[in-house]
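User: Second chain of the day. Same drill as before.
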Amino acid sequence: MSYNGIPNFNDPCAKVQERIHPESGAKVIDVLYGAKNPDGTPKSPVSGDGHGHFSAIEIDGMYQMIMWRHPDSEGGHQEYGDYGKAEADRNRHPLKDLENEIKEKKDLLYEARNMMKQKHYDTSSVDKILERFSNKFDMNTPVEQQQKRQYNELAERNNRNKKYIQDQQHNAEQKRKLISQAQEIQSSENWKATSAAMKDLMDQWKKIGNAGSENDVLWTEFQNARQTFYQRQNQYFDELHKLMDQRKKQKQEIILESKAAAKHTADWSGTHERLEKMLSKWKEIGSCGKDEDDKLWAEFQSIRDDFYAKRKQAWQEREREFLLRRQAKSALIAEAQAYAKNSDYSSQAGDKMRTMGKEWKEIGFCGKDYDDQLWSQFRAAQDAYWQGKKASAEARHIEWKLKTQEAIERRRNRIKNIRQNNENLEERLNVTRNIDKQNQINEWISENKEQISKLEEEIYRMEMEIS
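Assistant: Same format as last time:
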């Protein structure tokens, strides 16, 4: 049974004593009442005079009864709580049960904490211990509040550890997939693509993170697959370098021969045929390395009369492509300007404006003399649109803020009225002697305070949203 205040059982001589319960940290109230003189008039209670004894523990401003023994004048029977019987149930022995519950919860926290000190502990076992804790009876005393904070800390840490273990397991699975991919391509002879793939796998590996106890074993497997490929690649390129040295000498001989042939300009047809045969022979030789190939090819091409014609043709083709790209970008600029002008700030319009940026990039470069100019126009249209959208959103936010402030003021006025009502009720409480009426008024006051608390929470939430 709970009480808003401390009962005196209508005994003007009742004594009220306070003490702190050491196991729970809560305040315990003892009311001694019902002591009478031989003539039946009330007197101050003393030991052995047959007075009644009421005890309650204070929990969150309320008094929870833990023992009530009537005075001898009322029969002296035990109404509630019996500290002399160890086998009593909770309703007959609440304070002792509270002490037992606190001790049991303390032991559970100790057990969970010790288990979590182990390097590789079972998080599910800790979950079971913490579940047993959460199922224990709780009166929300100061010590129990501290235990709940300790419980929350352990539960949070256990969840973090559980997540960490799950992450390691996930990382291990991801690394096994990378190992499988590396093993699949370790025998490839597509050196360039496979080397890039191996590099990409290594980049992915670095991003994955630790895989726990399996990490070193997985790394060894991964490295073995990579080294198998790179050893084969190194052997291939060692042999290739020897071959490229031979090819370089062959191409240098062709260059000397082409220079000699180009000197005999009187025989235009014969010289052309000889240069074409040299070109065919050049192509059959194969590569001698990119840098050397580029150098030798540039020297060989300078001898050929058709080099500049081919280059001119390439430039003409590129200019035609630039023209198409400029037209595509101009169309995007016109579309972006239309959205900005129409002030269409819908989600569909926003998505379209963002898509335009991607489309712009996909179109590509359209020439040095035009690209920057077109980009400036497109960027200006985009900026105008997003600035307008931002201004529109800010205006809506200001309107919402004003309405919220008005709602806060209405709640403050309600709080003011409720508090005035409580003051009136407290004045009535001071003048009335009817116990039932006092209880009813106290209930009204308590309900009003709850309503005030709810309104204050709403005000706090609204003010936090505004800030």
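The first helix runs from residue 94 to 116.

User: Great, on to the next one.
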